[in-house]
Amino acid sequence: MKINDNFLKIQNSYLFSMIDQKVREFKQNNPDADIIRLGIGDVTRPLVPAVIKAMHSAVDEMGQESTFRGYPPAYGYDFLVNAINKNDYVARGVQLDNDEIFVSDGAKSDAGNISDIFSVDNKVAVCDPIYPVYVDANVMAGRSGVLNDKNEWSNFVYLTCRAENDFLPELPKEHADLIYLCFPNNPTGMAISKEELKKWVDWANEHGSVILYDSAYEAYITEDLPHSIYEIEGAKTCAIEIRSFSKTAGFTGTRCAYTIVPKELVFDGVSLNKLWARRQGTKFNGVSYVTQRAAEATFSEEGKKQVREVINYYLTNADVIKSGLSQTGFKAWGGVNSPYVWLKTPDGMTSWEFFDALLGKANIVGTPGAGFGPAGEGFFRLTAFGSAQRTAEAVERIKNLF
Ligand code: PLP
User: Fold this and answer.
1) Is the pLDDT confidence value at 14 over 80?
2) How high is the pLDDT of residue 151?
3) Residue 246 CA: which ligand 1 atom is closest?
4) Ligand 1 nearest-atom number relative to CA 256
5) Which of 238, 255, 362, 397 is 20–30 Å from 284 (CA)?
6) Cα 5 to ligand 1 centre (Å)
7) In terms of DSSP bridges, do strands 257-260 and 239-244 run parallel, antiparallel, or are they unpaired?
């Protein structure tokens, strides 16, 4: 028996485990410290009343023989797929067939699992910095090659996102088969315009590449920017889109997401839609009825209003963080179309040095940019998912420190 030794290549500690460990140690040594967590991207506001009501009534249905449900359909109940199609796509001028929508238990699982349907020989392009799941999933699948001394995988194409370019990646200078894009971006908080996204769609169509487009944060867009890649002409022949209810409606603990695989995605005569349907049908058994009713409720009139209030709450926090940092002399990005604020560390500190300083002196937990890739070194991410009061307090502490 041999193990999949690609797993051994994954760097010894996943970013957030490392942060947890450091915070645990700090707490042991400083039991009275009042720590404010603006690190991990988890939400803190409760589920909205419309969602809770829908969940309660779905639970009641599960307790009656006449309305009990067993295994859900592998790709989602019609009521939810219809609601997604109507509200997230038709409303934005995008026409999709319901069987192009695959409901799942998370954007993380989908972003990791989608690589199952592609050959191990494909060249993968990733932005740098990046949400680490895309990289690690492809390392596990055997597409990475070896790690060099710059902390880059030899077989990946890196699309460096630089401050001078507002952290938008440049088109690849070499061939890439699979391109991971995420907008609004985690970690930089920056979004992309239709014109810029069109360049990626055109490039992918020209080169026979597939874009894996993660728009888990589209609900945070406040400016006139594309929410879906399918708002761009030509995207259906080159893009798969991954969405989530996690940050849109506080479902990080409830778990519901979906992935769009258009039927126009046909390579060597093979439909990617059919491959993903086969993959999900084999390895995934659907999302619970209660959860799908909960997700459906986010699209009701009251659900939409309530969810919007929560998003605005986080966006206000983001503005408090960003403007507080800017007043203190920090260079900061994001926070306008995103719950993330990305800042340049002061005085040439490394990301982890800044992490230690912020934790040690202000008892604030953030996320070191270096954890998102080599180009994240010298940057730091703060999230707007805390309470308004604690966020304001954290900003005051930072102001007093620097
Ligand atoms: N995609 C991005 C870019 C994320 O930042 C996250 C979570 O932080 C996810 C996906 C995970 O979403 P889910 O909770 O649906 O698994």
Assistant:
1) no
2) 85
3) 14
4) 15
5) 238
6) 26
7) antiparallel
